[in-house]
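request received
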Amino acid sequence: MTAQIPYDHQAELEDVLERCNALRQAPVPSGDALPEGYTGTLGHFPVYFPEEIAHAAGLLPVSVLGGGNKLEMKHADARMGSFVCSICRSTAELGLNGSLQSLSGFITHPICDAAKHLAGIWSRNFPEQLSQILYLPQNVNTPGAVRYVAAEYQRLRAELERKTGRSISDEALRASIRVYNENRRLLRDLYAVRRDEPWKLSCTESYLLTRARTRIPCEEHNALLGRALDAIGQRRQAAQDKPRVVFVGGFCEQPPLEMLETIDGNCYVVDDDLLVGLRWLTSDVPDAGDPVWALAESFVERSAASPVQHDARKTKEGYLMEMISSSRADGAVLTAAKFCEPGLDEQVAWSKHLDQLRVPYLVLEFEEKMTSFEQMGMQVETFAESLLFTLA
Amino acid sequence: MTTATLENAPAGAPAAAPFDARAEGQRLFSDWYAALADAPARGQPVANVFVMGNAVEILRTFDFQLVFPEINSLQTGVRKASEEYIRVSEDYGMSPDVCSYVKADVGLILKEQHHPAGQIPKADIAIASNMCSTFIKWAEIWERMLNTPAFVLDLPGQRGGNWQVRPGDAQHAADARWVEAQFRDLIEKCERITGKRFDMDRLAEVEDRVNRMVYHWNNVMQLNRVCPAPYNAMLDGLTYIGIMNVYRGTTEGVEFMRRLEDEIRGKVARGEGRVAQERFRLLFSGTPCYVSMRRLIELFETWGGVFAYSDYLTFAAGGMDAGELVYDTSRPLESLAEITALAAQRGLSNQFFAHERLAQQVRDYDVDGIVFHGIKSCRFVSSGMADTRDYLNRRLQVPSLYIESDLIDPRYWSDAQIKNRVDAFFESLHQQGGGAPLAPKTVAAEAGRAA
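response:
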């Protein structure tokens, strides 16, 4: 009989985070590296994609989130203008350098014009892959929007069935919805920790935990999140004298990890829009009845917000203020990715609004390929100090 | 009106006096700006619309005065005032890296709607389609700064390469159903704003006029397939497209297009070309640089190069030249939805798969090369341009030139650099067997007369 190893929550969390960080930099799995039960991978671009449909088709949904700050650009500079944002350019690079050649398909969305052009680049350069734009509606307020989204999801379902040669039953879809509902619950729990006890979980850690879903099956991600939440619950860390802020502007292009660490070093980030597409549906999707309708209805009626989704019920200023008030934040970090037109437009609107309401904020511009953070660190430190001074 | 009646439509009576499209276009534009300034005094409701996916037919049924903010912005460029408006918006906080049309318009708002062409009224509603994503962000700016409610018209676009959608097939029916639902929603909003009941017969009348305009427009486009090309698609064509947008669905618009077609038919019959000796036929892909367009055209016409066509004339005219796009006025609303859905896929969002359309246009207009104009301001046209160029070079071996400037921001125009590139392009075409270059002086003088 062997002695039971005592549970060490910190070691457990470190183990999970190490795995998540490895997944962040991991290639898209293919061949023998594919998880059991999957016949291929389906790439999708931010913001939101109904992963349940790919999951039910036996295709591993893979979020294509650009190349980070370690990718060497060898091809894309000649294929996309210098004025295009980094995530679109590095995604094109990952395609052209062969890193995404094992994908069965790549789906993008009408979030911005550069993202839509990725579908054209894919169709010209990788004709063997299913390359499409999933036309999620920018009008979700007209009666009939759910019906349209359901039709678009049925179209996607048929495309994936043709690609895989495998039919997607309603029951398989409902099973996938249940798996993802569990994931949605766990992610809500994760963000509740950030809001209620931010000293137990940094923004960077939360980001790594969330992002892990982009390379592994949702079931495995659920297990990872479960382990992490158990360990986080037992963390005993004292609260520090840091201001509470919300972070916005990370809905598409990924800020470098060092940037998040820099902000964590000075502030408690109690809410954010990082990887919001993976948390887009804000409550459980009904797992009875027509599963496609349930997904479509959830998209229209129970979803998050971002600068690239128009919804008359959710003004951009309104959802930012809701984030600030519900997380009891003292201020906001308003970021935008360089050359991201929607993000840059929103940054102006947000800052004007916060000026009016006298809510402190810091404006930052970032690029995924950034490597120097000293100046940004000084800006964040100064902002945090001024917040603390104001709050004192 | 059906396709059959269009095919049998009379060519139109010969114009009583020579038709000067440029002068007539300027007159119509002056009238339009005067009407904008007077709209509040008339108590006329006002709508902001864009050139791609705008439901103009419905708005005209309700007698909205239409404002085209894109045209207002480009007019600041044409009138050499754009930099002032752009700087005002940048001082306000707008990024250097966003659309200069938007920035000029924000500058206009900050200058209390005072435009070089006159006072621009505030709109009662804005229609923004998803065809260009910036339209939506722009409309959100009006919501904030002017309290103008935005109606986002969501048009399902081309989903992938080799996308085939035909009228009446299941995909088209599903897309059209969604568009029709939105039109019905928009009609309710227009009824509330104007206090008027929607009149289906009036919609049919507007559609009939659009059909006639499109009929002549398509003929005008096709007439430039002959050699020599009777007009320059990126100079004369810019006047034509302005009328096509601003006067869409009006009697003035129909008459302009009818007379324009007659005039161009006459030029073709007489063998008159835009340039005296046409040496190179070219296709222009992208948007104009309105601050320096005449200069850019001069750089090409000096070499005997004429733009026989531009994809700008397709997408910026609402995508109605893509064929089979004729309203059935016996069922006006349903047909409006069906044609709008088709135009969105065949003439607008196919910009994201531009290689397909350009390959066809290279054949249709028998061009010697393509000129790509990439601009930071317009990611709708520019983001995939370099890859499209690479693809067409490899597949069709079409010579091409890539230049960069901007829509209306003069700070991005580099005359010497662009001239060097244009000259090198023509030298290369010449070396590949193109015609001998004309003596620059002679041609420049001829080009000046033609302009």
